[in-house]
Amino acid sequence: METKKLCKRQGCRKEYKEEENKETACRYHDGKPIFHNLKKGWTCCNVTVYDWDEFQKIQGCKVANHTCEAQDTQFFKSQTVANAEKGCQNFSNTEVKTEVKSIQQYEEEQRKKEEEKKKLEQNKAREILKAKDGKYYCGNPGCADKTYDPENNSESLCKHHTTTPLFHEIKKMWPCCKQETYDWDDFMKLPPCTVGSHLPKYKN
After folding, report:
1. Contact, 187 vs 142, CB < 8 A?
2. Which of 49, 51, 97, 193 stands 20 to 30 A from 113 (CA)?
């Protein structure tokens, strides 16, 4: 019984029998795989996706016979990656003297910074941000109304989120309700997850 071999071509990696190995048996990519931010794809066929499973399903754009010979595999490097590598190399060639701080020292520094920040905020006169028609701007994250009448405020008027939005690379999400998307217009359409009263927004 003939032993199966593993094809080493990029985008194929299938097992095959030599007797069944024809010139059209292998679909593969002859370009470089792209991994940049959340994007994944191939330079040869200009196809990019965001999900790993979808990347695995991208069909090869070239046809040939299978081969078990090792292929020259390189990743596409964006200018951002190249600059980062150059920076790391320069850093490694430079002697830097850094004081190693203990966890206690670091926590104490952070505590003092937080105290100073709170003192500055308390000393700063807080002025409510108002619209031209006299209504208050709502300070709740994702408030659907944006402005409200302070004389007619109740626990059922403000539809909002309980956390601030999170923007990581090209992903946009609300941590409080785990809603996420990559498109800005779709993000703006995500429904609020909480109902409560409006809170005034203050000038910085």
Report:
1. no
2. 97
